[in-house]
Specification:
Layout: H1 5-10, H2 18-30, E1 33-34, H3 35-42, H4 46-58, E2 62-65, E3 78-81, H5 83-92, H6 100-111, H7 116-135, E4 139-145, H8 147-154, E5 161-167, E6 170-178, H9 185-188, H10 196-200, E7 208-212, H11 215-226, E8 234-238, E9 249-250
Helix pairs in contact: 3-4, 3-7
Length: about 280
């Protein structure tokens, strides 16, 4: 008698480590990472990372894609959930089991998504914080919410992501606006206005972090921010730096500060993601 689909998935369980489960959850939440991003978050040796990703792909837990580089060669592998990975996460969170066709369509849509570069940029921000915390025991990323979860929890906020960053006894919340240079700055500078409703409802007064792709764009944005009054604090930095370090220039300020030094008022609590324990997801 042929095995059922459930029995087939159970047969994979002895091969899944706690680190694998964390990776599956991260991909379920944030969709796609490059090999380098996974290496920096979860592994010490790059070769070990590459071998393990290949093993997980052979088990059907992961899938991957990559594109040709302009001028020759290939881009790095982009990793996402494979069919068994989707099945595993569906079982873990009491969701309907996806069909093989649905899993294939998810990968195809993700790979062809015109916003893929932006998604990878958003994820890179949090990957760098995670990597920083691995090297600094006093630091930790207590919360990493995607755009969809942030919007669900805060309703009027459409940030690219939300996080809580702690160093020793200091915890700073933030909303992330990751910039790839495709939007006009007139639209970018208006984004802090979205967060005023959260503050007026008694919610947190977290800084809005503009993570910009060039120093020139950062300089131009600061000129625009100086002329905009408002209750929402904002700070800028570029993609070239570790976001945990003293790289953030608050609007109206002249000196840069660390992420943990930005002002942060947590306000009233919001309901946390039920997939996490007490809203905390420590890597």
């Amino acid at each position: 008698m042929p095995q059922s689909r459930t029995a087939g998935l159970l047969a994979i369980y002895p091969h899944i480590t706690s680190r694998d489960r964390l990776l599956l959850q991260l991909l379920d939440d944030h969709h796609v990472f490059t090999t380098d991003q996974i290496h920096r978050m979860l592994f010490h040796a790059r070769r070990t990372c590459q071998i393990r990703l290949g093993e997980l792909a052979a088990l059907g837990l992961l899938d991957r894609f990559r594109f040709a580089r302009d001028g020759g060669g290939s881009q790095p592998w982009h990793w996402t959930l494979g069919h068994n990975g989707h099945r595993f996460q569906a079982a873990a969170h009491n969701r309907p089991e996806p069909t093989a066709r649905a899993s294939r369509q998810t990968v195809q849509r993700l790979s062809a998504n015109p916003h893929l570069t932006h998604l990878l940029t958003v994820n890179e921000f949090f990957v760098r914080l995670t990597a920083h915390a691995r090297q600094h025991p006093e630091a930790r990323l207590d919360r990493w919410w995607s755009e969809s979860l942030t919007t669900k929890q805060y309703r009027t906020v459409t940030a690219d992501g939300h996080g809580l960053w702690s160093v020793a006894d200091t915890t700073v919340g933030f909303f992330l606006e990751a910039d790839t240079g495709t939007e006009p700055l007139s639209r970018v500078v208006a984004k802090p206005d979205r967060y005023t409703q959260v503050i007026r409802r008694g919610g947190p007064r977290y800084p809005v972090l503009f993570w910009l792709h060039s120093e020139q764009r950062e300089e131009h944005l600061h000129r625009l921010l100086r002329g905009r009054p408002g209750d929402v604090p904002a700070a800028t930095a570029t993609h070239h730096n570790d976001p945990a370090d003293a790289v953030w220039l608050p609007a109206g300020a002249t000196g840069r500060v660390r992420l943990a030094e930005l002002p942060s008022d947590h306000g009233q609590p919001v309901a946390d993601n039920p997939n996490y324990d007490d809203g905390v997801f420590v890597l």
